[in-house]
Amino acid sequence: MHSEYCSFSGGFFRFPIDRMNDTNETAWNQRADNDTQTAAEWTVLPVFQLLTALSGFLSNGVVFLVFAVNRSLWTPFNVYVVNLLIANCACIVTQFPMDIVVSLYHGGWTLSEPVCSYYLLTSWYLQPVIFNSHQLIAINRIWAVTHPISYRGIHSTRTAMCLCVGVWIYVFVGLAPGLVNDTAYYRVPLQTPGLCNLNTEAQLHWALAVQIIFYIWPVAWRFLVRKMVAWLLMGHKGGKKKEQSH
Q: Is the pTM for the entire model greater than 0.85?
């Protein structure tokens, strides 16, 4: 199972790491060995997840409605923002309900195998879409700063929409082979208590490539873009000051 946070408008991230740590798995197996009926329990974690999901969906939904009803906000750049809001809401709706159920049972997966497959496919797909949607916004910003003339001449609402669709396709192409292989050949049986994970050990090279390309690199790129934009703006201001002094 993955860690808990989709990217809300505030910028939460999550990497594809197993949430089923040894402690949770051991506790679940002990309950199974003792033939003890495991009951749902509202501890701090599921309550926190529920509040986070509600606040995230409401905040993203309200911002989306603001863009939807105000035509003055229908600018090419805001297409990227709306794309990110859609990905955030999809992540919250498809993943958090099942995350909450799992936490209610102390990390044990009590749902069916088809639901497990659905959960894994959506979570492994939507999270990289969110990361790379952030990366697309960073690319847009560096394009606007470094090549303002071509940006104004080429960039349009249609261009932004095509680039956003391209991100969803790009992530799908990169993840589909590993997800299909896991579903068809490598999935850990659900007879093992408390497990609903991709079998990343069976496809270690693919999992490592996904981690680097779809998670680590977008974050690193955003950091680099911030530094580059700040450096370019400082250089631009410095040039203006020199011109004024002369």
A: no
